[in-house]
Write a structure and sequence with these properties.
The complex is a heterotrimer of chains A (about 325), B (about 300) and C (about 400).
Chain A: H1 7-15, H2 17-31, H3 38-60, H4 69-84, H5 90-112, H6 117-137, E1 154-155, E2 159-160, H7 164-186, H8 189-199, H9 201-206, H10 211-237, H11 247-260, H12 267-282, H13 288-303, H14 307-316
Antiparallel strand pairs in A: 1-2
Chain B: E1 3-4, E2 7-8, H1 9-40, H2 47-65, H3 69-90, H4 100-122, E3 138-140, E4 145-147, H5 148-170, H6 172-182, H7 184-189, H8 194-216, H9 228-241, H10 246-266, H11 274-285
Antiparallel strand pairs in B: 1-2, 3-4
Chain C: H1 2-14, E1 28-34, H2 45-59, E2 68-74, H3 79-91, E3 97-100, H4 104-117, E4 120-123, E5 140-142, H5 147-160, E6 165-171, H6 174-189, E7 193-200, H7 208-217, E8 221-225, H8 228-240, E9 249-252, H9 257-263, H10 265-268, E10 272-275, H11 283-292, H12 303-322, H13 328-337, E11 340-342, E12 346-350, E13 356-357, E14 360-365, E15 378-384, H14 386-389
Parallel strand pairs in C: 1-2, 1-3, 3-4, 4-5, 6-7, 6-8, 8-9
Antiparallel strand pairs in C: 10-14, 11-12, 12-13, 14-15
Classes of the chains: A mainly alpha (about 325), B mainly alpha (about 300), C alpha/beta (about 400).
């Protein structure tokens, strides 16, 4: 790489910083299974997608949803149920999960969009909690036990996902695909309107944009991607449980995005990998996980608002 | 007496009374949240943890200082209130210029820290705290046996709630508070120390939460998680009531306690979710909440 | 990875005949997984790790040249956390046996994983009787107690002493339902009647509403089909509402000595419960408790801890006899073949369906005046002999049992 002082070369690098970062990330992920436990990587990828979905809402629309676990967890349940009880092949199971998340997103969004800021957060939290209790009781979720022994099945009828390598490649492809989709959404006319709404909603309205509609669509999209993440996770771990719909899960995805960098493209990914690694390391010390998470929250909000990628982007003066 | 849907009137009144008791806690906690939100525009996610701290403070006072319930009612809110003031000075004051959501995130982080630390030291099964001797036993009301302590809870919470409402809505101090909420700069120009008022208000809201905790200690086990699930229900109560009015928080708290109590009789499995369902309905009809003023 | 393990297992099995012992990784690694910080941390938690270590010491592993390592982990009562830990343990850390695992939902999930990876699962903490029923596997042994044994002990004994009308307060999740179902069956079989039930959300805090309904039913016995802090809170609040004073009795269907400790004798006196082991029953138990308690902040061993000790002891004996630990099925088969004998449970056996057999005991909680020292809580009301204490094998529905 040239270290060019000339404005032209510099600008080209900056313009393509996101593309370069994407290639770096993709390469690292392809090579990673040689160095790390694949199940750990798959978990991190699912959460990375979940965090990207959440970031779409908070980073680019400015809406803090405190109930995203609802979409993640319910998609996970429906996918598990579809794969185990209805015998769906994995691709259809994941799609069912995503569709469920989209549907729930439309309902929750319609209710929550009516209010702004903090109210919006509280409403999403309360609705998610309500669906949590529903999950505890609904017979098909098996409550505390969760849906266990979910078969991974054969992708498109030919690729056996019970093989760890096949599963990893599938998860990686899903992640990269959705990541690119999210990038496309953000960098599109639709995305520009969303950013306008985040910056100054009254002005966007005065320009003729129906902000409520745009926010709802963004909400549903975010919910759908969260659903894809949840459904994939159900297949990876062959288990869908109450943890996925509980409010601490919503808190976790917020933390991942915050640590990684709100409103940056790669922030959620970095944050997800960081938090999953941290939790892995901390399982041996039990409940201190919560304290550590809390401390990270406090430190990030007070001192480190840009997050890992945000700070990196600031230092390198590129867009990440 | 009479029968309603197969439940005798005796059982029904008993359940309503219990609902009122639960409602006392909802009212106290949503009152604290409303007071804090009114002044600081911050949703204090740590409210549940501070409720838990109040209960633990009562336990410690009894265990290590031999000071019983009546001391705890006074001391625990003061102690926890002071920690609230420290939190405000150390952390919250930097956030007023930022997006309100950061306040929510910070207090969420604080809640995790408090609960995690206590969980590590005290496990989750909880610690026993007994009903103070003066309030033990109960009255046979005919339709049910009412433990004295539970009756005390309702009466005392009502008194605290109404006193707070009175101070805020009808006294000079309260008028300063309300004015500072509307226009802090102008009130400062009048020579009133607004930052100090903000700090003290947060401390007061936290003290209210701790007071609820002390009152809960004899009934529910003193456990690190006691606030975690309760806080979300209180959020729903607050959304239903609307953030604008103090009286709204009080009325909604008691009212929802009653409704939840009724649900436990007729449809116990749904008792966890009924408040959220009501919240969804209220949002459809009146997005600002029952007593709220539109933002 | 699965292929690698199968190969290793085959190699180990082939090498069985020769005198040289071949353990995977050269070590016998035992993973103790349970709730280290939540509701069940007192009855299992760190104490189980201590119990496992004591078993390894008493077995004399070092002297026999066997390298045994004990690791512990917290599953936080969540099946996904538990599954993750077990998967990582087996795939990455080469753990050979998983022990304890209270909370039936986690145990059921681990049950599947251990079978798929052909390791050994010794359940001490969990209660689900399905583990030796429809969900039984050749890799799992259910050691200490189960819902059927508890229902049989408490239910039958209480009905026989006059408690013949029952009202159930049930935790609304799979375990609570199972406990209620098993106990109701026993009550009705022995001439009692179930006159009502109510399900409370899990986990619950305020049971006053449900307790009032139980009181209104006028049943002689209120059966608490819940566990942990739910049971503790139900008992505490029942006392508060004068339920026990007005003539109804509480039956705790799943309670441990640590629950009695948390409640205090004043509130818990008169409570009837079934357990598999009590530290004050005989000298061997007392000696164990004396060694155990200082290592766990004074908490006395529960039946779960004793079960972990007994299971690990028997596992090590089986592994020593086989001279290998790689093939879970083979080790468990050996454990079923050898009769059990340890200082805590005495002589017993492991059945074909994976059920460990030993007597169960019916206890009543002492009044405060009757207790001479902390943790002196129980008086023995009855001993249920081993052959009557557990569900007959034929009724279980375990596919391993040839009918």
């Amino acid at each position: 790489m040239q270290r060019v002082a000339k404005a032209g070369g510099d600008l080209a690098l900056r313009r393509h910083s996101e593309a370069i970062a994407f290639l770096v990330m993709a390469c690292l992920l392809v090579l990673a299974p040689a160095f790390a436990y694949p199940v750990f990587l798959m978990k991190a990828l699912c959460f990375a997608l979940f965090a990207c979905a959440f970031n779409l809402l908070i980073g680019y629309v400015g809406l803090l949803s405190f109930g995203h676990a609802l979409f993640f967890g319910w998609a996970s349940y429906i996918c598990a149920h579809a794969a185990k009880v209805w015998g769906f092949p994995p691709e259809l199971a994941i799609l069912s999960g995503a569709a469920t998340a989209a549907g729930l997103g439309a309902i929750v969004g319609a209710l929550a969009i009516r209010r702004q800021g903090i109210y919006f957060a509280m409403i999403t939290l309360a609705l998610a909690q309500m669906m949590y209790f529903f999950a505890v009781q609904a017979p098909f979720t098996h409550g505390e036990d969760g849906i266990q022994a979910v078969p991974r099945g054969k992708l498109f009828g030919i690729i056996d996902l019970a093989d760890q390598t096949n599963m990893y490649i599938t998860v990686l492809v899903i992640f990269l695909g959705c990541f690119l989709l999210i990038y496309r959404i953000i960098n599109s006319p639709f995305g520009e309107v969303l950013k306008a709404i985040r910056e100054n909603e009254p002005r966007a309205i005065s320009l003729g944009y129906r902000s409520e509609r745009y926010k709802l669509v963004a909400f549903v999209l975010s919910a759908t991607f969260a659903g894809v993440a949840g459904a994939t996770k159900a297949l990876v771990f062959q288990l869908a449980s109450l943890t996925d719909v509980d409010w601490p899960m919503s808190g976790e995805v917020i933390l991942m995005t915050l640590v990684g960098g709100l409103g940056t493209l790669f922030g959620p990914v970095a944050g997800a990998f960081f938090m999953v690694a941290l939790e892995n390391y901390l399982t041996t010390i039990g409940q201190w996980v919560f304290v550590v998470q809390g401390v990270i929250f406090v430190v990030c909000v007070l001192l480190f608002r840009r997050g890992i990628i945000g700070e990196l982007a600031q230092v390198l003066r590129v867009k990440l | 007496m009479f029968e309603l849907f197969g439940i005798s009137s005796q059982a029904l009144f008993g359940q309503l009374l219990i609902g009122l008791i639960n409602g006392s806690f909802y009212a106290l906690l949503s009152l604290g949240l409303a007071v804090i939100f009114g002044m600081l525009n911050i949703i204090n996610f740590a409210h549940g943890a501070q409720y838990m701290l109040g209960a633990f403070a009562a336990y410690f006072l009894l265990q290590y200082a031999g000071l019983g319930y009546w001391w705890a009612i006074v001391l625990a809110p003061i102690v926890v209130g002071i920690t609230g003031i420290i939190i405000e000075r150390l952390f919250l004051q930097w956030l007023y210029k930022l997006d309100h959501l950061y306040g929510l995130l910070l207090t969420f982080g604080l809640a995790l820290i408090f609960e995690g630390t206590f969980r590590n030291f005290f496990g989750s099964s909880g610690l026993p705290y007994s009903v103070p001797p003066a309030l033990q036993g109960g009255q046979n009301l005919g339709f049910m046996f009412l433990p004295n302590y539970r009756g005390w809870v309702v009466v005392f919470s009502l008194a605290v709630c109404l006193t707070t409402w009175f101070v805020i809505e009808r006294t000079k101090l309260g008028s300063y508070l309300r004015a500072a909420t509307e226009n802090p700069a102008l009130v400062r120009a009048f020579g009133i120390n607004v930052p100090r008022m903000i700090t003290l208000t947060y401390g007061f809201g936290v003290a209210l939460a701790a007071l609820a905790g002390v009152m809960a200690a004899p009934i529910y086990n003193v456990s690190p998680q006691m606030g975690a699930n309760l806080i979300i229900v209180v959020f729903a109560v607050v959304v239903i009531g609307g953030m604008g009015s103090i009286m709204g928080a009080i009325v909604t708290g008691f009212g929802l306690g009653l409704i939840e109590g009724l649900t436990k009789v007729f449809f116990p499995e749904a008792s966890n979710t009924v408040i959220f369902i009501i919240m969804a309905i209220v949002l459809l009809i009146r997005p600002a909440g029952l007593f709220g003023r539109s933002a | 990875m699965k292929r690698l393990f199968t190969l290793t297992a085959v190699a180990v099995a082939l090498g069985c005949g020769c005198a040289q012992a071949q353990y995977t990784d050269g070590t016998i690694k035992i993973g103790v997984m349970n709730d280290m910080s939540g509701t069940y941390s007192d009855l299992s938690g760190q104490g189980s790790v201590v119990a496992a270590r004591m078993a390894v010491e008493d077995f004399g592993a070092a002297a026999k040249g066997m390298k045994v390592e004990i690791v512990g982990a917290d599953h936080q009562n969540k099946p996904d956390v538990g599954s993750n830990v077990v998967r990582t343990w087996i795939d990455v850390d080469k753990v050979d046996a998983i022990v304890d695992v209270p909370t039936s939902s986690v145990a059921l999930a681990v049950n599947e994983i251990v079978r798929d990876k052909n390791k050994v699962f010794l359940v001490s903490g969990a209660a689900a009787s399905d583990l030796t029923g429809p969900k039984c596997t050749p890799n799992t042994i259910h050691w200490t107690y189960d819902t059927w044994a508890l229902a049989n002990g408490t239910g039958k004994a209480i009905v026989k002493t006059g408690g013949d009308t029952w009202f159930f307060l049930t935790a609304d999740y799979a375990f609570g339902h199972a406990l209620e179902r098993d106990t109701a069956a026993v009550v009705e079989k022995n001439g009692g009647k179930v006159i009502g039930k109510v399900r409370h959300p899990f986990p619950g805090t305020d049971f006053s509403s449900f307790l009032l309904q139980a009181q209104a039913s006028k049943a002689k016995i209120i059966g608490l089909a819940n566990a942990g802090s739910d049971t503790i809170n139900s008992i505490k609040q029942a006392s508060e509402f004068g339920i026990t004073q007005s003539g109804q009795n509480l039956a705790a269907l799943l309670a441990f000595i640590t629950d009695v400790h948390a409640l205090g004798l004043k509130t818990a006196q008169g409570l009837i419960m079934t357990e598999a082991w009590y530290w004050d029953l005989n000298d061997a138990n007392r000696e164990f408790a004396k060694k155990f308690a200082p290592q766990v902040k004074g908490v006395h061993p529960t039946m779960v801890h004793a079960g972990v000790y007994s299971a690990v002891m028997h596992y090590l004996k089986a592994v020593e006899a086989l001279k290998s630990d790689g093939d879970g099925k083979a080790v468990v088969a050996k454990m079923k073949e050898m009769p059990t004998d340890d200082k805590l449970f005495g002589k017993g056996e492991v059945r074909a369906d994976g059920r460990k057999i030993h007597p169960m005991y019916l206890f009543e909680v002492k009044k405060p005046a009757e207790s001479k020292a902390p943790w002196d809580y129980y008086k023995l009301r009855a001993t249920i002999p081993a052959d009557e204490a557990f569900r007959p094998m034929a009724e279980g529905g375990c596919p391993l049992v040839k009918s």
